Amino acid sequence: MRILLSILFSIVTVFAQSFSPTEILFVPWGEDSLNNVRYFTAPDGRCGPQNFHIQKDTIWVLDPVNQSIKAFSNNVLRKCLYAPTDAKDFAIKSNNEYICLIDNSIWSFKNNKLTLTLRPESPLPLIKSISLKNNRLLIFNDNGTTSHISDDKILRYPQKGIEQFDKYYEIKKISRSLASITIKDNSWKEITKIDVPIESRNLGCIRLIGVDLKNRIFLDVDLIQQDIPLKVKREVWVINDKGSHLAIIHIPTHYYSSIFRDFELTPEGKLYHLISSEDGIHIMKWEFPDSFSVPLDGEYPEPFQKHLHYNDLEGSEFQGDEIKQDDSKQSVTREESLIIGDSYVQHQWTCTEANITNGVVQDPDGDLVQTPDWIHIGSNTKIPYKWGGFNTLPDYDDGMTTGKYAGDIHTAGVSNYARGVDCSGFVCRCWKLTTHYSTRMMDDPAWGPITLPYSSWDDIKPAD
Length: 464
Prior knowledge:
Elements: E1 2-4, H1 9-12, E2 17-19, E3 22-28, E4 40-42, E5 45-47, E6 51-55, E7 58-63, E8 68-73, E9 76-82, E10 87-92, E11 97-102, E12 105-110, E13 113-118, E14 127-133, E15 136-141, E16 146-150, E17 153-156, E18 162-164, E19 167-175, E20 178-184, E21 190-197, E22 203-211, E23 217-226, E24 231-239, E25 245-251, E26 254-255, E27 263-265, E28 271-276, E29 280-286, E30 296-298, E31 308-309, H2 334-346, E32 348-351, E33 361-362, E34 368-369, E35 378-381, H3 393-401, E36 405-406, E37 418-419, H4 423-430, H5 439-442
Helix pairs in contact: 2-4
């Protein structure tokens, strides 16, 4: 059975009823109290609390810079659990048992002690998020599949679909003007397929936030307003399982720090949103009626309408190698490039006390060095950011064994005593270039150019 979404979103909003969220929690930035949350600033942006969970009257917030998961109720801090600095997601089993997503693996804790670590048999696909349903852990992957745990192993279901209440939802972008939602039963048999037309013909991507007990489907939608430079409008669309449009929420570009997952949907259909602002974090609640006489059109309060994005942080840029090598005969396939990129993300290495700075230090050449906060003594995964870094994996491992610093986020100068890659260095390694070209040099005719502009984001292919 195939359903056409008969009411186009842009038309419906003209007749929609406006509504707004309520704020249920505010936590200010600060370092002087556990009642605050913290962020750190690095060359690639600003990072703070990564996500949150609602559990009855308790709001749990992952504050990795403070190495904690904090429980708030009535705007008062009630409890803190330990979480490593590189935790991205979490699930609470009980007051003393919880699970974290760290380095694409599942870490189980009890009484703040690590009890079990599980890693997928294959490093890909990457784990996007985790969730507990009836004390059963669901693992959602970035390729649209769902995994579960059996006999202390992470097992992935063979077909695409995000599990929601014994059904599986596969969301697919067909084109800029069309997306589809395929709903399957627990035997993977197709129940129905919903076409979601985009009248404005500017769909960037579409993701599933969740489905509630009333079978209302909540979608996270990015609409491309401008290709070059890229400008995106973000919205939440709510439809039912028959394809009828129920609501649109307009999400302002207001991101003081990066967040791993900023939405949570309860089974009852309450939608919560974590917003990072200049004064701290705000958690907003959207409530929906049981029935809709007209579609709803949601807007955020005025303070959140201010344009704010951590990518807009001003900073200097590494200028690249002064001497150009002859890369004219270099060639690389898309597959090779992706394999090289994955190897940097999946690389496991051992950190010693000599490899971390615990703040800013001065190297023997007088350059200031600061290793990233997420790195810890012991086993780590992925190569860290290093200002001006262009190291191969063997270079990096050799540097760790000889006491070099693991990464460097201080941008005053390039240290010869640190190892890692920066953004452009990583791209150059993936493309098998022998020269470290900076971002500025990539499209400069004097250097090739290395890259050429596309007229549309739809032209981009893997490894571009």
